[in-house]
């Protein structure tokens, strides 16, 4: 199962997810709401993982209806297979489809990461426009017990 979210510059809350040690999870971040008409993502330039101070965000709470991903260390949570999406996929909770070329896909793997710590994952993409945009999206990931 791919954990899929829509990136929207209008939203104020950072999307949250959970991962367990020993898991590798697939993610897709949709950018179609911030792309110009006909514009596609040309490349996924970077996926960075850094510890996140929960006190920085008033919206970070452990409520069950929130989806967040947090990582505590780039050495204990790693990213791989960063690419532009090559298949359309529907964001279940929003009923919106991320068309081919309008999303960034990647995997996160947690191995011996500290349980209970939030981590910020920043995804940087560049578009194919005549004047290309560089767009950053953030999600949070928290390592939880089995």
Write the layout of secondary structure elements.
Elements: E1 2-6, E2 15-20, E3 24-30, E4 41-51, E5 77-84, E6 89-91, E7 96-98, E8 103-110, E9 118-127, E10 134-144
Parallel strand pairs: 1-3, 2-10
Antiparallel strand pairs: 3-8, 4-9, 5-8, 6-7, 9-10
Characterization of this structure:
- The radius of gyration is 15 Å and the shape is elongated.
- β9 and β10 (134-144) form a beta hairpin.
- The chain has strands at residues 2-6, 15-20, 24-30, 41-51, 77-84, 89-91, 96-98, 103-110, 118-127, 134-144.
- It has one domain (2-144): Sandwich (Immunoglobulin-like), CATH 2.60.40.
- The protein is an all-beta fold and 146 residues long.
Strand content: over 45%
Q: Quick check: average pLDDT? A: 77
Radius of gyration: 15 Å
Topology pattern, helix = H, strand = E: EEEEEEEEEE
Domains, number: 1
Biggest sheet layout: 4 strands, mixed
* Strand segment tally: 10
Low-confidence stretches: 58-75
Architecture (CATH level 2) name: Sandwich
Widest beta sheet: strand line-up? 1-3-8-5
The CATH topology name reads Immunoglobulin-like
The coarse silhouette is: elongated
Q: Main attributes?
A:
single chain; 146 residues; mainly beta; Immunoglobulin-like; four-stranded mixed sheet
Q: Care to give the gist of this entry?
A:
This protein has 146 residues and is mainly beta. It has strands spanning 2-6, 15-20, 24-30, 41-51, 77-84, 89-91, 96-98, 103-110, 118-127, 134-144. The protein has no helices and ten strands.
